[in-house]
Amino acid sequence: MAKSDRIIALDIGASKLVVAEFAVSKSGMIELLNYGIGKLGIVDPDGQVDTSAYIVSSLRDIMREHGIKPAALYMTVSGQIVFPRYVKLPPVSKDKIFQMIQYEAEQNVPFPIDEVVWDYQIMGGDEENGFSVMLVAVKIENVKGFTDCTLAVDMEPIVVDVAPMALYNIVRYSYPDTEGCIMVLDIGARSSNLIFIEKNRIFSRSIPVAGNAITQEIVKEFEIPFAEAEEIKIANAFVAFGGVYAGPDSEVADKVSRIVRNVVTRLHAEVNRSINFYRSQQGGGAPTLVLLTGGSSSMPHTDTFFREKLRVQVEYLNPFANVAVSPAIDADLIGKDLHLLGEVAGLALRSGLACPVEMNLMPPDLVAKKVFRKRQPFFALAAAGLVLTLLCWFIYSWRTRVTTNNQLSDVDSRINKISGISKSLAAEIASEETALAKVECVADVISRRSRWIKIMNEIHTCLLEGMWLTSLNVEGEEDDLKSVKYIIINGVGFEDELKKSDKPEATAIEVFVEKLKQSESFSSDTRIERQPPRKLHTREFTVRIVLKDALKSRK
Predict the structure, then answer these.
(1) 7-30 per-position pLDDT tens digit
(2) At what angle do helices 342-352 and 163-174 cross, to 10 degrees?
(3) For the chain: N or C, fewer Cβ within 10 A?
(4) What is the reported pTM?
């Protein structure tokens, strides 16, 4: 890859942390250089434990173990803590769109507008038919909790995106030719995100049925702590086939698989409701392709279950279909982790390309900090200018009398130097003018010579067969320039040839004169001056050729 910049993409989930390092070329192409995945500890979702310490610790461990150094940071927040809203604006001029969107945000966000950070994206429409707008909002305290974690490891985010929007961008980039509606099913730990992608339309919904729901059912079934239930799920979970079937040899695995199927069946019901809502309320079509992603989507037979239930093509999202991967990364390893890398790949696109959806939910304090940082150089320059002005004034007042004579002497010395330079410049200018005059003279000679060649060529072209010229004279006016206005040509032609005119009503000499009049250089005033009687087999003639533009030359 050509010379490129590094960026870090960070996806913070409910139970996992994904850090990826990308190279971004000058042309906007991205390449995955390195990545690491860390756990945030097994925390009971019903508890009120602050995960900030887990995030900071895991982030430091991943960067240290994988040798990832800090760089420009792009990060996501979970779709579960974001409030997406889809509104239709009435026909309005573009200069009033923001006011309308701000009003819609105040009406649709279920919190005071000063307690959230929000952004929007116009998804289509025009001034005549109205605009379709997607709003996203998140409580400031929630997003600030994540950005504070990144600041703790000396990385300040440039973009705070929403996980479903990052997935939307990578799907649009990786599957550009897929027709119909694509539905992305991102099954995480605390929630599952549905993203409908159809042409330029997007619809997103968060469903509170995901991996932790399976763990909680295991807790109830086996009456064990959440952490132990999570370990049993990781070791034994798969989606059981429906009906009577030969289950696994392990009784624990059999119970877990049935629990998984029950939870996934609940998830399927929610997915079906979301599909119906999307089709009826959003005017969308039925999904033709389902892409699975997310940590909990890796349970065996998940794709088979949804393929049978939804009766459409189901496959796992490949975020690297059009994104390069460094040869240094083990292919088998990344193949196992594809379902966890969709968000970071979508984030990386934001650094080099114009993406279909670009949200930034940066907390207000970080925005203010960035604005202040941009203004700092101006503040520093202003302060330095003030101090320097005062200092210069003090020094000037103190040393005025002492330095006056030295300054005058220095000025005189500079004047003398400048005078010498001025004389040299005058000589160079005079030399340049002389050279230019010579160049103009040579150019004039070349121009006149070219003109004469053209004139003689036109006369020769107009001569008829059997004619030839015996002499050529010029006439004009005499002043400061020699001006040639007329050319007097004398010629002779064979009598028998002169009679062979293409125009019986005109003589060959008259035809010759007519051709001269039609030439580019000669005027219609060109005429026959003299046409004496023939001598033996020849006839003489004299023609006055009038130039359209007088030919001038220097004396």
Answers:
(1) 999 999 888 999 999 999 888 889
(2) 80
(3) C
(4) 0.67
